[in-house]
Amino acid sequence: MNEFLQACRAAIGAAHVLTEPADTAGYLTDQRGRYTGRAVAVLRPADTAETAAIVRLCAQYRVPLVPQGGNTGLVLGSVPDQGGTAAVLSLRRLNRIRAVDPVNNTMTVEAGCVLQTVQQEAAAAARLFPLSLAAEGSCTIGGNLSTNAGGTGVLRYGNTRELCLGLEVVTAQGEVMSSLKGLRKDNTGYDLRDLFIGAEGTLGVITAAVLKLFPQPRAQVTALAALKTPAQALRLLNLAQSRCGPALTGFELMSDFCLQLVAKHFTDQRLPFAQRHAQYVLLELSDSESEEHARGIFEDVIGNALEQGIIDDAVIASSIAQSKSLWQLRENISMAQAHEGKNIKHDISVPISRIAEFIEVTDQLVQQASPACRMVTFGHLGDGNLHYNVSPPEGVADTEFIRQQHAINLVVHDSVDRFGGSISAEHGLGALKREEITRYKSPVELALMRTIKQALDPHNLMNPGKVI
Length: 468
Known about the structure:
36% of the residues lie in helices and 20% in strands. It has 16 helices and 18 strands.
């Protein structure tokens, strides 16, 4: 191992081969602070060439490699196991914007670029990069691509996969594959790009990407609607889509308990309604004409929804500050739940048409498994993705409640499967769901995944123990 570390120091500089516990600690613990692995070193290359050199050394010395971006993942995909034989490959120094092409509506960026930086660079060119999620101030594009991240704009723009036109990848053999052409049409064989997107670093290391940009909307209008049931939320979604079409860019469902948690732990935030309601929907419209036009459309949607009895009340943001305040209600749910204590999280998706039935049926099943537990259900209703989380009953210690995690996971994920859904909508599998997915994927799918892994990474050095 000393020989390997000496070779790494020669390849990328001794200052970027971290072995002291004080230097490596921040790379070894997952974002939720529940798991800490061990590593022979944290390696921090500066560019693609240095990354390729490190991968070749890992192949030569048979050292497993764990690629890591901002380390904001939620399924233990970016931290090593406790065996202590793997090296962490941090891509944070690969943080350059290589090119912005406003005419082609593309931006070429390196994997370590922070998502928020990419958004800002796009805005500086009068363009929009629409990927948006709670960790955007610290997550990186490489991680977003490796997990095929979702976020709040999937309804209009799709997952990260749909926002990428090409990749630069270091293969498990240390070779560089580049498809950074910025083409929207290239029908010349297998789409190798799609193999690496969503693979969580198990097939190769993404070092750069060409991302899609869009014209900046002339106006964005936000509304918060109060209603009784998820079934009514689906009726509101149908009404809004029929009136707004693709201009509807956000449609988020939140239960009353979610927002009560936010109000409890973020005391400066208040709901804009005089009374409580069972469910809320946050809607956003991005308009290419004007704010007046967008507001007129939203007023029409809200007015019709009130007349039809779909919603009980609504407010349309009258300023950017009010719009941000409404979005903060949604974005602070996860943090508020963390402040409340440990909880059992599920990142699931089911067909949009079946969401209301899924919530009703699964809530009953979970209550049978853990009476009086508190459901924290929220998420991207417009694309079928729910964060279906479970908090302990009042007065029950969270450490005691977490012991039920396996049993509750089984209840929820079996229900997801019966409804034709997925047990991981946008977070990936990582190590956390690697075994569980075998219960829900068909043998044919699993065999094909293993065949691809064996073909591209025959020595199982790329993020071993993750996904499959």
